[in-house]
């Protein structure tokens, strides 16, 4: 396992990265504005699980393929971007969801699972996340203590848990701002802002250069 100093160093590095608002924060905030508090939290945790899946892919070596193959990188990048645009269009079209009362946000368990699944797909279909893990995780591995793969999975799980906690706070703050404006018209404007932001995030992801 990583030494205590290595592990704490990774936690500090992860928090610095996570606390700088990035795509996952924008995604969670967009969902908070579009649908409210409960779906924002579910989105944040689904996204974190997807992030851990990305760490797992890096740990077993798929990240190396994406790093070396421009085609593989492009496929993952455009698939993720297209999915974000799809979610943005869905938010704009979902008038019933936009006007739902806060207590009705979660919907059925099936809807909750679907929300987490959407977050999972976005978290996993981010090639830069995989490349980040591929670049940074080995820096905190204790080569003389246990399996490197297991250590990378531990660090990936730590990163995902920290991301989930921080993104949840962002989502709750955004949802609180949404809940202040409970009248239909302002709420509709905020909801449409969330959908538009998702579409913009998808376009930005597609236009982004390979690191």
TrEMBL record:
UniProt keyword terms in alphabetical order: Cell membrane, Membrane, Transmembrane, Transmembrane helix
Primary location group: membrane
Bilayer topology: Multi-pass membrane protein
Domain of life: Bacteria
GO cellular component, one term: plasma membrane
Membrane-crossing residue ranges in chain numbering: 6-29, 41-64, 70-89, 120-141, 153-177, 189-208
Pfam families reported for this sequence: LysE
Protein's cellular compartments: Cell membrane
Xref: InterPro entries: LeuE-type (IPR001123)
This protein's record includes keyword Lipid metabolism: no
UniProt keyword Membrane present: yes
One Gene Ontology MF term: amino acid transmembrane transporter activity
Name the record gives this protein: LysE family translocator
């Amino acid at each position: 396992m990583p030494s205590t100093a290595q592990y704490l160093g990774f936690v500090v590095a992860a928090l610095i990265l996570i606390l700088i608002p990035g795509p996952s924060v924008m995604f969670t905030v967009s969902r908070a504005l579009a649908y409210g508090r409960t779906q924002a939290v579910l989105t944040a945790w689904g996204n974190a699980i997807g992030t851990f899946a990305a760490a797992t892919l890096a740990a077993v070596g798929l990240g190396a393929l994406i790093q070396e193959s421009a085609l593989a990188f492009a496929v993952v990048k455009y698939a993720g971007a297209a999915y974000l645009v799809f979610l943005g269009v869905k938010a704009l079209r979902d008038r019933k969801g936009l006007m739902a009362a806060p207590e009705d946000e979660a919907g059925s368990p099936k809807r909750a699972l679907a929300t987490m699944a959407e977050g999972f797909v976005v978290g996993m279909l981010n090639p830069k996340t995989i490349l980040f893990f591929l670049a940074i995780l080995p820096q905190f591995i204790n080569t003389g203590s246990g399996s490197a793969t297991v250590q990378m999975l531990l660090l990936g799980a730590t990163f995902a848990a920290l991301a989930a906690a921080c993104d949840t706070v962002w989502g709750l703050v955004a949802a609180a701002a949404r809940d202040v404006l409970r009248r239909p018209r302002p709420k509709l404007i905020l909801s449409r802002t969330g959908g538009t932001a998702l579409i913009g995030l998808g376009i930005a992801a597609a236009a982004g250069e390979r690191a």
